[in-house]
Amino acid sequence: MQAEIDLESLRLLVRVAAVGALSAVAREAGVSQQAVSSRMAALESHLGVRLLDRTPRGTRLTDEGVLVAEWAAPLLAEADRFASVTRALRATSETHIRIAASMTIAEHLAPGWLVALRAAQPSVRIELVAANSATVAELIRAGSADLGFIETPEIPDDLEQVTFATDELVIVVGSSHPWARRRSGVTVGELAATALIARERGSGTRLAFEQAVASAGHTPAEPAIELSTTTAIRSTAASGAAPAVLSILAVRDQLTDGSLVKVRLRDLRIVRPLVAVWRPDIPPRSPAAAALMTLVRSGLPRPPG
């Protein structure tokens, strides 16, 4: 079986292509020119291709050498990324990460992430603050949190961001509410005219709902009840007081046990982005932050249940 290619030799070849001289590459690498030349000769032997033209006036890449260097560059970039991520996941030194997350993410996604993060880095210390999306953005701006996770359609343009998933909002009612038996569903006009149980202003859930209704040409009624927690909204909706708008993540168990019923919307679907944010001048480069972002981008894990 052919031995694996030496990535460091490929890295030296890419640098030779960039700077054009073995001596300059040797100085960069802190080794002798002879050592670089020997690595190049070994790489040529391994590949069975002449990579360099050596003349009294200097050394230049052959056409084949240029191609190999071009192909090697993205391979080396991926290798560096892989090494960085695995270092983050395997880091054992004491680390500390401060996270701010909007309510739906804090209650239904973050627990699974944090369990996995602790499994990968047992010594990591984690602080999690749950707040609405507007407050999360303020905590990031103030430097009070390293990473923020928000669920609003209005992404702050002064923060770095990456969308890692989408979330659907649904209308739910208690089993005794008239809409629970409405097989024909509810129109967006009827929904807009109905006073709902809603989150407070600054909540990404409320903003996403209001923008979706407005984009359909309607002005949503003022809420019948404003509550600041998902648990309170679920309980109040289950009592039959009024319909509520919540993330599908927040009502899966209640839809299964029948304490809440999902109302069919005939002409509207409400989807919002789930976004990680951080300050441009404080990127999430710590081992814990890098490991957390790896978990978040993978889409796994979610808490059981």
From TrEMBL:
Gene3D superfamilies (UniProt xref): Periplasmic binding protein-like II, Winged helix-like DNA-binding domain superfamily/Winged helix DNA-binding domain
Family: Belongs to the LysR transcriptional regulatory family.
Keyword vocabulary terms for this entry: DNA-binding, Transcription, Transcription regulation
Pfam families in alphabetical order: HTH_1, LysR_substrate
Species this chain originates from: Leifsonia tongyongensis
Protein name stated in the entry: LysR family transcriptional regulator
Classification via PROSITE patterns: HTH_LYSR
A single GO molecular function term of this UniProt record: DNA-binding transcription factor activity
UniProt domain HTH lysR-type: residue ranges: 5-62
